[in-house]
Amino acid sequence: MSGSTLGTLFCVTSFGESHGPAIGCVVDGCPPGMALSAEDIQVELDRRKPGTSRHVTQRREDDIVEILSGVFEGRTTGTPIGLLIRNVDARSKDYGKIAELFRPGHADYTYWQKYGIRDYRGGGRQSARETAVRVAAGAVAKKWLHERYGIVIRGYLAALGPNVVPFKTWEAVHGNPFFVADESVVPELEAFMDRLRKSGDSCGARVNVVAQNVPVGWGEPVYGKLDADIAYNMMSINAVKGVEIGAGFECITQKGTEHSDEMTPEGFLTNNAGGVLGGISTGQDVTVSIAIKPTSSIRLTRRTVDKQGASATIETHGRHDPCVGIRATPIAEAMLALTLIDHALRHRAQNADVVCTTPRIPAQAPQDVIERLRAAAAAENDEA
Amino acid sequence: MSGSTLGTLFCVTSFGESHGPAIGCVVDGCPPGMALSAEDIQVELDRRKPGTSRHVTQRREDDIVEILSGVFEGRTTGTPIGLLIRNVDARSKDYGKIAELFRPGHADYTYWQKYGIRDYRGGGRQSARETAVRVAAGAVAKKWLHERYGIVIRGYLAALGPNVVPFKTWEAVHGNPFFVADESVVPELEAFMDRLRKSGDSCGARVNVVAQNVPVGWGEPVYGKLDADIAYNMMSINAVKGVEIGAGFECITQKGTEHSDEMTPEGFLTNNAGGVLGGISTGQDVTVSIAIKPTSSIRLTRRTVDKQGASATIETHGRHDPCVGIRATPIAEAMLALTLIDHALRHRAQNADVVCTTPRIPAQAPQDVIERLRAAAAAENDEA
Amino acid sequence: MSGSTLGTLFCVTSFGESHGPAIGCVVDGCPPGMALSAEDIQVELDRRKPGTSRHVTQRREDDIVEILSGVFEGRTTGTPIGLLIRNVDARSKDYGKIAELFRPGHADYTYWQKYGIRDYRGGGRQSARETAVRVAAGAVAKKWLHERYGIVIRGYLAALGPNVVPFKTWEAVHGNPFFVADESVVPELEAFMDRLRKSGDSCGARVNVVAQNVPVGWGEPVYGKLDADIAYNMMSINAVKGVEIGAGFECITQKGTEHSDEMTPEGFLTNNAGGVLGGISTGQDVTVSIAIKPTSSIRLTRRTVDKQGASATIETHGRHDPCVGIRATPIAEAMLALTLIDHALRHRAQNADVVCTTPRIPAQAPQDVIERLRAAAAAENDEA
Amino acid sequence: MSGSTLGTLFCVTSFGESHGPAIGCVVDGCPPGMALSAEDIQVELDRRKPGTSRHVTQRREDDIVEILSGVFEGRTTGTPIGLLIRNVDARSKDYGKIAELFRPGHADYTYWQKYGIRDYRGGGRQSARETAVRVAAGAVAKKWLHERYGIVIRGYLAALGPNVVPFKTWEAVHGNPFFVADESVVPELEAFMDRLRKSGDSCGARVNVVAQNVPVGWGEPVYGKLDADIAYNMMSINAVKGVEIGAGFECITQKGTEHSDEMTPEGFLTNNAGGVLGGISTGQDVTVSIAIKPTSSIRLTRRTVDKQGASATIETHGRHDPCVGIRATPIAEAMLALTLIDHALRHRAQNADVVCTTPRIPAQAPQDVIERLRAAAAAENDEA
Predict the structure, then answer these.
(1) Cα angle D87, D92, D98; round to 5
(2) Sign of the torsion angle spanned by Cα atoms D122, D126, D128, D131
(3) For C218-279, where are the E strands, in sequence order?
(4) At residue D57, does pLDDT exceed 90?
(5) Cβ-based contacts under 8 A for chains A and D
(6) How confident is the model at residue D94 (pLDDT cuts 50, 70, 90)?
(7) Is the pLDDT of residue B381 over 80?
(8) Alpha-carbon span C126 to D279, nearest angstrom
(9) Of the ranges A174-183, D7-16, D42-51, which one carries the lowest mean pLDDT score?
(10) How far A78 CA lies from chain D's nearest CA (Å)?
(11) How far is A134 from chain B (nearest CA, A)?
């Protein structure tokens, strides 16, 4: 299977360049009978689209999606869903210079060396514009996961450069242009972004994504693990340099007694596993965190080489996000949704007949249970 | 493709449980004509095998590999290579208790809920014993990559619990039981491990892996990116909770001017990208870092539930690694090798005819060039 | 990989219903640098399109293809090629009746039972209209195979119902509406078709396809055989019920001495293998023959059931091909091209470095050599 | 996915050469909880194994299968099932000559040209010995299909060279060494085979396979059609040159009124479709017919070339089947079972939630219904 198709059973095949006629995808393997309209997809696209605040690119990309197939009388038919997004604001002149120079941090050099040819306009195929396709396909997945299993997938910006923003409430996320889960920090972030934009530089970000109500049992060890596929899907997003599940890199300094999540009939006591054990979902929240590198397109002068291999410098003007991470939240949600739906289908393909008499324990023990158990353990230690 | 097969063109299909008759795999798609003996594979297996020091499990696993097919008169024939490792030290009695209880941090509960049945002996299929298969298959990949492209893949333990061990030399790695790249810290680590083992607890670890001499151009964006496949392969290793490429999570606090690697005719000035841009190798070292959680099998008492869902406690005796990360270095190397060979083949399938007239720039500019450029830049800043 | 994607490395992902907004596909994995225009594809589409003679459907399907991506400045870039064909002549009213009844010989009943929903207009996804997509994708494959290897892929109608039409010349094929390789039979076929159309019935057909100049070595045994993939691709064409390679079913009554193709330094003496031995191309012509069932949409009354399971009768009016086999020639050529290009890439992925010192023997020994050898053999027999 | 893996969800990965240490496979994706023993597999292997009559090869291949994994306490666990068959009767000396010459009709020349190296002993990887692996894997599939859906898969030899043997009863098949469904012809076939063996020549065969009780709805159009996958699986069997579904090539001369199967509430009136419409099973018997070429290894002298490309002759002695088709029946059954189980899983992955209110019609209308309807139709015609 070539590199533009994602998934084993719920498959997304993507196409399109930033400044070509259109981008789009084919979503194949969607279960039939689900109500689906262009509007269902559009709402997700609108969350990602540029120009929603002064902190993101001012490019105009209306990102209007058209459903070309696979939906009949408002319901999915089980046949491939063709999705099309025409490119509208392709100012190719902005990009003439890239034709001759390789921008540091971009894939100009690697595409050129790999293929010997590239559509340099706006980055062509390497452009993050392709992520609109992921959001569109992810909207279909999200909807099915929610309707069929009650799964809720939500993300938030957990760090904007050096500004760490701990989670407060999900309600906060939708009320601010940064997707942070704490509205009180918004003025601070705005000031930070204004300074950054003015400086001509860019910054990185951390995005966290959480899937709630994922049933126990999804994932296909030993290679097709749920977390392996999450890592794949997340790392395939432009600019992502790191992926964590649950405790992530913090597990290095944890003791076994701290990390492994104890189980009680009332539920798990902690969730360091991030909802995945042995590559299979536990029923707890699936928690993922990704690192997004700073935008490579910046106004400041950078050393590079040209197509003849000679030394050169470059400043990238044009309309770029000073932090691509800000708009990454809907993309990360989409990629998690696409991983989950694929494993939902893979799981029932093999295991639809499994009857497990052992009760499933709740995702999370109630807070009072956790506290009572901790107190009891502390008392026991005191005695000893 | 089901979950026990890895790779698109160089495919590894794994089988086997910890305490069944055997583990093994089929390596399909290997280029023909390469000299290959069981000994070539055995040397890598011996690096991973238990019992090599007091800091790892004392289980006896000879891990003797037999080549069942695909090699004729000492050379690969291009047909599938069957590899078999018989299990020899299966003390099933150690594991009787696991049949009734779900060990926290292990996949007992998830396998049980998913399949409704599991071979609980030694963890069965979820056991890290399966990683021997990865090392065996990886040995074939490593050899081809080295002979065909001069690629060298090496890893080291970069942190043992809270003990961070920066890289000093590759020579150091092979001379100590921890795979650390600085022998001077070994006594300290030994003391740490002795205390840890005595305490009955366990700790996590960080392993770094580096591939040198990877040609520019490998990777299949936009989904089949080289780094996406690395993330998948790494996250599929038992106990891994995080994966980084290049700067990894550090990129969050980097500025664009810091992160993106400037290019000169003499080479790249830095390697924050970790050798991958836009999902395609740059020709620089491919650098990967993974987080390995603390061993879940510990002697200390833990809360859990039994198969009837009732509350219970468990202590895991038996012969377990207090830090599974120590033996993870050869596994991580193998998984990187398997990713790279698959993309080597995928790349030339599509692009064998590409002639790119642009010169390839060296992986890394010489140190004196870097210093001269930095000095010049500093002087310029002073003037301004 | 879901059912709408074809191929391992050169992948076609198809979408679209007969009477939806559009049909199309994504062609992924195409080697970069090949000149490609919409016109290159259009010429093949025009060979398949309806309305070219009175013997095929009079539906108007202009089948104008638009290239949405993957081509830059007239050359393929190695990124996915999006192809779009808008539906223009969608007279949905013709199809109202099908909503309630299952047409015998059609997939109405099976789609309905499988998915619980279907776009019945014009057969929706089951419509042979989807084959336009195959022809479009096949045009890309054909072009590359010809430019890179000199491969020529051509088909012809070898039987129209009971009328067997042996091969005479390739030139003949393009000069008649039946794709037969002997123009002298055209009047006879026209009369046959006129009678058939008038009777309200339909007939089957045989189409033969030949690929010349295929290099020796393509195919991936033991499952991914070249002929296995040809059989898959051909049988996936609407209405195909049988596939033969080389001697095909005739081999049943052949002796081993007749069937197996003797080899001489001047070339193979026969080609019963149809250019494939052990699943790998021999260098001889790859010859394929397919059986296409009679059109199921006929004017004559047929028994069926309705959506309530009650007995009913149906006559299908509308504009249908009395023999769908007539327009199948370009489709079969396309499917053979898609099989071959996929194996061209797969072969070089694994075997690009193979140096075989044994000379390759010519595809076919010259006729005089064959005759001389036969005469010698006969003489020898006489003596014995 | 490389060429030695078969299937999308129920995957078989095969390895092994005729004269290497062993052949075997990994069966991945099998649903858990099914009772499975080595004996279940052995009974199928014994049907295929050589030496059961004087009409097949006298090689000794005990074909004793060992289950290496995936079964615990007599039940499948859902993890990969490793199957191993050691080679025991490897008389390599019989095959010395093949090292230097390419046997006509065999894959010696193509393997050599493709890989530049080959294990020539007994044909190595190209040997039909690999089909034992298919039968072993197919036994697992067959058992599950029967237990879960009541599916019965049976084959018979329908022609032995020019001797066509129509179907009489299934009981007959197991009572004779030819797998023919009519015991009365056995003496005749024995005489034919004795003459053939004596002549030093070989003959082809036709094998028919039927799957009963296949539910309606299996298959993934438009490429992953049930019949496309059947064609792939069948054509991948050594020596197969043609595949038919249902009426097969006979459909060419059928009229639409003859071919398309009318439907009534009592069932389908005919089964020209062979149980597949639009690539989806109809609920009728799935009927498949394959053509198997005459054995290429014959005693008579044949022209060929040697490794230097020089002219040569060859006679193949050793212990070969004069008609490989005789032992092909269990293989063809296995390949049909492997196709069906894969589609069973694929179907429920996507469509497990489909509720179709339309009644399913019976596979076949009772004979008296068919006759009554025919009489009525004839009467109507008489009146008209």
Answers:
(1) 125
(2) positive
(3) 240-245, 263-264, 267-268, 276-277
(4) no
(5) 54
(6) low
(7) no
(8) 9
(9) D42-51
(10) 8
(11) 10
> Which of B201, B252, B354 has the CB atom closest to A206's CB atom?
B252
Residue given tokens 């605040």 in the structure block: A53
CA gap C205, C194 in Å, rounded: 16
Asked if the Cβ–Cβ distance from D9 to A346 is below 8 Å, we say yes
Mean pLDDT of B73-87: 97
The DSSP letter of residue B328 is: G
Which residues does chain A have within 8 Å of residue C29's beta carbon, measured at their own beta carbons? 2-3
CB B209 within 8 A of CB B215: no
Residues in chain C whose Cβ is within 8 Å of chain B: 1, 8-9, 29-33, 78, 148, 345-346, 348-354
- Rounded Cα distance, A222 and B125, in Å: 8
Name the neighbours of D, counting chains with at least 3 Cβ pairs within 8 A: A, B, C
CB A145 within 8 A of CB A341: yes
Residues 6 or more apart whose CB falls under 8 angstroms from that of A46 comprise: A63
Its ipTM equals: 0.97
**Chosen from B11, B76, B350 to mutate, greatest number of chain C CBs within 10 A:** B350
Residue C213 has a CB neighbour count (10 Å cut-off) of 15
Q: Would you tell me the crossing angle of helices D329-351 and D226-235 to the nearest 10 degrees?
A: 150
| Cα dist from D8 to A232, C101, D345, whole Å | 20, 33, 9
Determine the residue type at B261: D
pLDDT confidence tier of residue A380, bands split at 50, 70 and 90: confident
Tokens of B190: 């030994």
Q: Cβ contacts (< 8 Å) between B87 and chain D: which residues?
A: none
Query: Mean of the pLDDT values across residues A65-89?
Result: 96
Q: How close does chain B come to C349, measured CA to CA in Å?
A: 4
CB contact under 8 A, C20 and A78: no
Contacts of B345 in chain C (CB under 8 A): 349-350
* Structural contact between residues A124 and A111, judged by C-beta atoms closer than 8 angstroms: yes
Closest CA to C66 of A131, A99, A24, D222: A24
Helix (H, G, I), strand (E, B) or coil at A66: strand
List, in order, residues 6 or more apart from D195 with CB less than 8 Å away: none
pLDDT surpasses 90 at C346: yes
A69: left (phi over 0), alpha (psi -120 to 50) or beta: beta
Angle between helix A108-115 and helix B329-351 axes, rounded to 10 deg: 60
Nearest CB among D32, D350, D354 relative to A29 is that of D350
> In a 3-state reduction of DSSP, which class is residue A160?
strand
Compute the count of residue pairs across chains A and B with CB atoms less than 8 Å apart: 402
Cross-chain residue pair B222–A8, CB shorter than 8 Å: no
Identify how many contiguous H helices and E strands chain D contains and give both numbers.
Answer: 9, 18
- Residue A86 phi/psi, 5° resolution? -75, 145
Type of residue found at D62: D
Q: Is C239 exposed, middle or buried (0-12, 13-18, 19+ CB in 10 A)?
A: buried
Question: Average pLDDT for residues C89-94, to the nearest whole number?
Answer: 60
Work out the minimum CA distance from B286 to partner chain D, whole angstroms: 25
Q: Give per-residue pLDDT as tens, C146-181.
A: 999 999 999 999 999 999 999 999 999 988 999 999
**Structural domains in chain A plus CATH codes:** 5-376 (3.60.150.10)
CB-nearest to B117 from D22, D68, D72 is D72
Distance (Å, rounded) from C-alpha D223 to C-alpha A11?
A: 14
Nearest to C108 by CA among C355, C380, C360, C316: C316
| DSSP secondary structure, D77-136, as one string | -SS-EEEEEE-----GGGGGGGGTB--TTSSHHHHHHHHS----GGGGGGSGGGHHHHHH
